[in-house]
Amino acid sequence: MATQLIPIKYLAKINPPVSLPESGEIEYLPMEMVKNGTFIHHTGAIETLASSLTSFQNSDIVIAKVTPCFENGNIALLSNLQNGVGLGSSELITLRPNPNVIPKFLLYALQNKNFVNDCANMMRGTGGLKRIPPDFFASYRLPLPPKARQNIVVQWLDKKISQIEKIINTKQQTLAKLSEYRQSLITKAVTKGLNPNVEMKNSGVEWIREIPHSWMVSNANNFFNYGKGLPITKADLTDNGIAVISYGQIHSKENTGTDLSNKLLRYVPENLAKEGCKCSFGDIVFADTSEDLTGLGNAVINNRTDIVYAGYHTIVAKPKNIKYSRYLSYLFQTDMWRFQLRKNAMGVKVFSLTQRLLSHVSLILPPETEINAIVEYLDLRVSYIRQIEQTLNDSILKLYEYRSSLITAVVTGQIQI
């Protein structure tokens, strides 16, 4: 029997029912836990999880239906789930392969570039809420060879993909070491300065024992005024309008904390603008919520001269002395300084950052005569490290592209194995 093109709705049940327990721990998969065919195990008590989440069970496939998660490869074949079942992001689709379909083959078929590109082009919605139309998804035809052939394809791809992912993992480990080095470089410069022989003194604050003798400790309230971002939601996003920086982009991996790049901007209609939410040069914009304590304190400095507004779930720290802004944007990246936020943060699954909390933390500040030297040193060194990181990320991206091309060629029969 030759390979046939079969609509997805005949290859698998779409969002089938799942028998969930009334209580206890089950698998819980936020979108970020699902990536490139696999997932990171994560559990939650079912009593605390929303009923609107997507349900699934062992051997199901979940795939994102919303941009950019779909294009970024948020898909996984599920196995060894806590109690065999789970709930995940409401932006996931669950597929339960039919008996004549090997789940791993369907997983590969759903990663082929033809399918990804066609679905991406058909997405409907505005801004960051574009989704694949359900009817288009269900009717999309994927190649399905006989089951014996499916098995051959799966075994061949498993071997090749494993080799590619081993190289990717090695590069990612190097990236992790570079990140640690970058972080240590920043921490040392903003807590000890550039003179290794400087005389130190007791700081008098909990989060840092000693600081250079000429530095001072001050309450953040003495250096900042605070404001809120626009009261908008994701539904307000458009393809053009006024530029905003919101919490999602502040938490993005693209955010360096010291450069408000175009990649971090989104747009809303001009009629939603409020003068009090406009960011001045040197303002530092914080995300006011985080899904973990690690991200609490994530922020970005506005180093732009064009008009940008603080968006949803943000707090704007407006410096009273702009000379300190860039130095502070580095200080705010350190775990030492963030200790104050983490110690006093409120929340369980989501942690909140408030203006009150920000205004009561302490800052360590070098004399104005030292600030420029510290900032210039960090700008140069950190920029060099980030260039290396970018080169590694580019090579990883090319490996993922090769991975995708290989899957496409084999699944669609362009390469005979």
Architecture overview:
With 417 residues, the protein is α+β, with helices and mostly antiparallel strands. 35% of the residues lie in helices and 24% in strands. The chain has ten helices and 27 strands. The chain has helices spanning 8-11, 103-109, 113-122, 134-139, 147-192, 247-250, 325-331, 335-344, 355-360, 368-411; strands at residues 4-7, 12-14, 25-29, 34-35, 38-39, 43-45, 54-57, 61-64, 75-77, 85-88, 92-97, 141-144, 200-205, 208-212, 216-219, 224-228, 242-245, 266-268, 278-279, 284-287, 289-290, 299-301, 308-310, 314-319, 346-347, 351-352, 362-365. It has a four-stranded antiparallel sheet with strand order 2-11-8-9. A four-stranded mixed sheet has the order 6-3-10-7, with no helix packed on it. A four-stranded antiparallel sheet has the order 16-24-20-22. The chain is elongated. 34% of the residues are buried. The mean pLDDT is 95.
Distinctive features:
417 residues; alpha+beta; four-stranded mixed sheet; elongated
Regions with pLDDT < 50 over 5+ consecutive residues? none
Counted beta strands: 27
Query: Gyration radius, to the nearest Å?
Result: 25 Å
Give the N-to-C terminal Cα separation.
Answer: 17 Å
Q: Decide which structural class fits the backbone.
A: alpha+beta
Please give the order of strands in the largest beta sheet. 2-11-8-9
Describe the largest sheet.
4 strands, antiparallel
How many helices? The count is 10
Mean pLDDT: 95
What share of residues are in beta strands?
Answer: 15-25%
Task: Give the helix proportion (percent range).
Answer: 25-40%
Instruction: Name the shape in a single word.
Output: elongated
